[in-house]
């Protein structure tokens, strides 16, 4: 939580001492329940929850449900779940819609104070009042501005019309309540913003029977006020809105929270927009909203990225006003760094090649003690070493060369943790496909008193030992960037034209060593997730490093018969796209 001591937030913290009425820091995270949260939201979550936590305060999870069109009940649950997964506990949950009654009273109060009026202008008329001329390509801004003709109507009339709006007299666009601000102010957020309107379409609000609803501008400030939010933290697009936010609270003489802004977090090389992700899902470019190639938080979770890695990443970016465009490679670097010290290590062979060590007896079975990590705190486990083992196909070459140090005919290589190295002797090929089916090798156990051969390199392997349930067979799904460029959004033929055709690579015959059984039994990894207390979340938490290969996590599609592993990230940054 170091980030919350520094930067602009500590200034706000000092600027307004807490009062008796507002004895502790209270923030809110205000998502609209109209989609799954993405990595950008994790910054908003970390800031709002982190800032209040750092100061011993509290954070409310508020569903900002003022726009029925795209909102759905399932998103409330998904948002709640993912906030929880990130390790944050809201002090309570609220909805903007909980306050509709109170907001209506405040709207009436605002009219009575001569701070709002009912307007019947068309959208074109409103644009003209705001100095917009022409439409489409012809459109210009900055023209002369003028007041709406309804703004001078009597207060009584606006009160009656507002009542009529709520009683269903008008259709969408025929009447709206507007704030009586200052059209001459250079700030567009002061140009008589809409406060209540009748939404387009006939989709009923899922939690209210109202057909006339408050706008974001009206509801957001006043919900903050009603809930006693001390610090209303939002992204910099709302900087100009601070003036209207304060105007509204002051006009009504209600408690006014501090609005402060921070920069948005954007990832390059991917798309975060809901509309675009829907397209990717519907057109089958990805498996679903939680496809590991996406950057929704459910996708990152499914891919196996631990919440701690996401929070570290956000923390490292720091809380500043400037927005950040961060490359996905930088995010992966952060993830790799986090996993390096927090997950156990195993041997995983992605594309197995069978090795028969001819001079070992058929029933040779030696148990070797393997540490789970460089960190002794992770403990050790026993793995069998047998006559038949599997190595990575890419660790063998038919033709040796002097600059090659892994296995080839006549070449000696070490098998990680096995007492003595092996030397390849011959190999067999499938006569029709030409694929190597098996390599024969010799175990380099020295004669009594002789020195053991020292191999130039060590490779990973998995034993064939039915008695020890080895190998554990798995399908590995390796993910590459979903787009070819860093900026899919600006592709001249649209973002779909920038799709990388090789963004998912399947290894159907992968093998994992027996330590996997132990890891599965004692998940979650990293262990600190368990302390967050959410056992449900542990189903997302079987992660490990496949030595020399990559970090892996068990995918949610895994069944009793089939283990599916997602490649979280490679061990090194090899994408170099
Ligand atoms: P999107 O259009 O990407 O869904 P949004 O602003 O409509 O974004 P909300 O559901 O309103 O999404 O977001 C909830 C909170 O998260 C808001 O306070 C918003 O400012 C913040 N937020 C959204 N996207 C980002 C981002 N990329 N970086 C930081 N904060 C963000
Ligand atoms: Mg949104
Ligand atoms: Mg929003």
UniProtKB/TrEMBL annotation:
Residues 24-339 form the Glutamyl/glutaminyl-tRNA synthetase class Ib catalytic domain. GO terms for molecular function: ATP binding; glutamine-tRNA ligase activity. Coiled coil: none annotated. One of its GO terms (cellular component) is cytosol. SUPFAM superfamilies: Nucleotidylyl transferase (SSF52374), Ribosomal protein L25-like (SSF50715). Its EC number is 6.1.1.18. Gene3D superfamilies: HUPs (3.40.50.620), Ribosomal Protein L25, Chain P (2.40.240.10). Keywords: Aminoacyl-tRNA synthetase, ATP-binding, Ligase, Nucleotide-binding, Protein biosynthesis. InterPro entries: aa-tRNA-synth_I_CS (IPR001412), Gln-tRNA-synth (IPR004514), Gln/Glu-tRNA_Ligase (IPR050132), Glu/Gln-tRNA-synth (IPR000924), Glu/Gln-tRNA-synth_Ib_cat-dom (IPR020058), Glu/Gln-tRNA-synth_Ib_codon-bd (IPR020059), Rbsml_bL25/Gln-tRNA_synth_N (IPR020056), Ribosomal_bL25/Gln-tRNA_synth (IPR011035). It catalyses: tRNA(Gln) + L-glutamine + ATP = L-glutaminyl-tRNA(Gln) + AMP + diphosphate. GO terms for biological process: glutaminyl-tRNA aminoacylation. Pfam families: tRNA-synt_1c, tRNA-synt_1c_C, tRNA-synt_1c_C2. Residues 344-444 form the Glutamyl/glutaminyl-tRNA synthetase class Ib anti-codon binding domain. It comes from the Eukaryota. Residues 458-519 form the tRNA synthetases class I (E and Q) anti-codon binding domain. Belongs to the class-I aminoacyl-tRNA synthetase family. This is glutamine--tRNA ligase. It comes from Penicillium malachiteum.
